[in-house]
Amino acid sequence: MSHPSPPDPNLVQPEPSPPPLSYSALFLRFLKFGALAFGGPVAQIAMLRRELVEEEAWMSGQRFNRLLAVMQVLPGPEAHELCVHLGMRAKGRWGGVLAGLGFMLPGFVLMMILSWLYFRIDFDNAWIGAGFLGVQAAVVALILRAVHRIGQHILIDRWLSGVGLACAAATLAGVSFWITLPAAGIAYALAVSGRRGWALGIAALVVAVAVAARLSAPGPIARASLDFVVTSPGAVAPWILFLSGLKAGLLTFGGAYTAIPFLRNDATAQGWMGDGQFLDGLALSGVLPAPLIIFSTFVGYVAGGPLGALAITAGVFMPAFAFSLVFYDRLEAVVEMDGVKALLEGVAAGVVGLIAVTALQLVISLFTPLSQTAVLGTILAAAFTANWFWKSKLAPPVILAAAGLVGVLLLRV
User: Fold this and answer.
1) pLDDT tens column, 1-60
2) Could you give the count of Cα atoms lying within 13 Å of 175 in the half-sphere of its Cβ?
């Protein structure tokens, strides 16, 4: 009796492809993913991998891993970019657009509703104000934890760590990220190519600019306080909010938390909102089925009403659509070019420095004034510890809810 011969391990297996789907079925499929996108990018990517790669074989696991590595180097929320890419794989460019819209739509609609409700909350009520203040302390803790987590993945050698520290120091001195981030990318690219003298020269130039900026405009680190002054939505022009979102979307490396310094800088420096409202928006996004970067919708709503929310959201998500729609199969080849890869890694390290400074500024704002430092510090420490050890996708919303309850119990005046 003859036995079938085992498959040849050296034989190249054909790359699997998605099953045939109509445009409407594709949109509804990714709309379902968006409605279940709780727990942040790790949980969202795991859901996509489980259903579309392991169960339905839209692509091989090896290709998915390669694609994910590319998305993590590029700016933008990785899970959303994966959806756009998978949609294109199924139905071309229109499929990519529909998949991306389906994934982000549930979170966007829910954030619009919560933003509308936010302006109907009575913050003069002691219970409500105390609850939101407790939540704000927990949000700061989540940001601090994110700085550590993102830094672990990005600051993987001494040069990248040095770039991150240099950008943080320059930001504290008042140097614009329009100077520090390009310098970070160029300096690291020069360093890994062996031209370390040039890299150190660029670093020295940035230090000189930082010293000059600090001497010419001394001032406190933090510019805003955690206030509860909530007025009606502002009237910032939609095109300004679109550009603010586009800037954040193009500079979001290593996760949505890295968008925080760019949107916060615009929101607080331009007087669109205070740090308290900004943290409230982050808290709301943390309990929604959506990429965390959907907090930009709240920023746009506060600054420019519903049209402003739509404009800033379009700006934030446009790069996530564009990279996959324009490059598609060329993404892996382009990002693996040594010069491009080093440049992007250097910029990402600089962004880690920026978000670290933002976290420091928010901590200072949280403890100003000092009357409730002990309680807020306890909430922050407890939330940070819980988020460190508790890896469940339910951790962020549960931690935020618990912090709000502790705020009601201990901070109510």
Assistant:
1) 455 555 555 555 667 888 889 999 999 999 999 998 877 777 788 889 889 998 998 988
2) 26
The full set of domain ranges for the chain reads 23-107, 108-410
Q: In whole angstroms, give the CA distance from residue 267 to residue 169.
A: 22
Instruction: Mention every residue, 6+ apart, whose C-beta is less than 8 A from residue 389.
Output: none
Rounded Cα distance between 185 and 163, Å, is 9
- Beta-carbon neighbour count of residue 216 at 10 Å? 8
Average pLDDT over residues 242-265: 84
Residue 39, SS3 per DSSP:
coil
Handedness of CA 199, 201, 202, 204 (dihedral sign): positive
Residue pair 252/317 in contact (Cβ under 8 Å)? The answer is: no
Question: Is residue 258 classed as helix, strand or coil in its secondary structure?
Answer: helix
Burial 9-36 (b: 16+ CB within 10 A, else e): eeeeeeeeebeeeeeeebbebbbebbbe
pLDDT at site 232:
58
Reported as a single tens digit per residue, the pLDDT across 190-234 is 887 777 676 677 766 766 666 665 555 544 444 444 554 445 577
